[in-house]
Every structure is written in structure tokens, then in C-alpha cells.
Write a structure and sequence with these properties.
- It is built from four helices and four strands; from the N terminus they run H-H-E-E-E-E-H-H.
- It is α+β, with helices and mostly antiparallel strands.
- It starts with a helix and ends with a helix.
- A four-stranded antiparallel sheet has the order 1-2-3-4, with no helix packed on it.
Length: about 140
């Protein structure tokens, strides 16, 4: 894309709308290029490297990264001190967050187990209802024979 000075230079009132639209397009283009340029390289303390990653979310116990092959979470305990400081890692907050996440996961698992137990009698009834007509046909066929 070639941008000329005449294209972005303010015009008299008649060209204000065109100027505004072109400036918005130019700013948007710069932001898109900057987001690609802001990709980072991360190296864990055990030597694993991830290049051109984008930080999607910072959580108290780690960083969620967008990598070319998907999304990954790297825990602060796996990262060097410089990275921990850069993202304001607090071990106490991380421990509390991890405890809360584990409690939420355990509650979800219990809820799923209860739902499964409740669904079993319904499945048995549905199976019995489906089997009954077939058994009736089999009895009828035996009686005719």
C-alpha cells in the first residue's frame, strides 16, 4: 500500500470525511502490523522454547499463550525470574488461584457424576421401552410357529 502525503494531508472542509476515513484506515493498518511485531519468544527454565507467541491472557499462576500450533498455558514456576517479574507474579495469589480452580474442578466433577447417576435409571427405562416391542414381536412369532 502506497500512501502519499497528499492522501493524508488535511483538505478543506469538503475533504474532511475522506481524510478521517483514510486516517482511520492508516491507524488500523499500523495497529495490525504492531500486533504481529509484538510477538514474543518464551524460554522455560528447563530449556523449552516457544517462538512468535502472543500472550492471550495473564492469570495469577501462569500465562496463556497463542502459539502457531494452538493455545498453551505456561506456569510461572516454569519461567525465569525476569518473566515472572515482568508479569507481576505473586506466589501467594497463584496458590490461592490454583486452590480455587481445583475446588471448581472438583465441584464440576461431582456434578457430572451426579448427573450420570441420575441418567442411568432413565437410560434403563428407555432401553426397556425399546426392547419391549421387539420381545413382543419375538413372542408373537414363536406362537405362530
Amino acid at each position: 500500500m502506497r500512501v502519499l502525503l497528499a492522501d493524508i494531508w488535511p483538505r478543506p472542509l469538503g475533504g474532511f470525511l475522506i481524510h478521517s476515513l483514510r486516517m482511520k484506515t492508516l491507524v488500523l493498518s499500523i495497529l495490525c502490523v504492531a500486533s504481529v511485531a509484538l510477538a514474543d519468544d518464551f524460554k522455560t527454565i528447563d530449556g523449552k522454547k516457544d517462538k512468535n507467541v502472543k500472550v492471550k491472557r495473564v492469570e495469577p499462576d501462569g500465562i496463556v499463550l497463542s502459539i502457531n500450533y494452538g493455545i498453551s498455558k505456561v506456569y510461572f514456576t516454569e519461567l525465569p525470574k525476569e518473566v515472572q517479574e515482568r508479569f507481576h507474579y505473586d506466589p501467594a495469589k497463584a496458590a490461592a488461584y490454583s486452590t480455587q480452580q481445583n475446588q471448581n474442578l472438583e465441584a464440576w466433577r461431582k456434578q457430572q457424576a451426579q448427573a450420570q447417576v441420575q441418567a442411568q435409571p432413565q437410560e434403563a427405562q428407555a432401553t426397556a421401552a425399546a426392547v419391549e416391542p421387539m420381545a413382543k414381536k419375538a413372542r408373537t412369532a414363536k406362537e405362530r410357529a
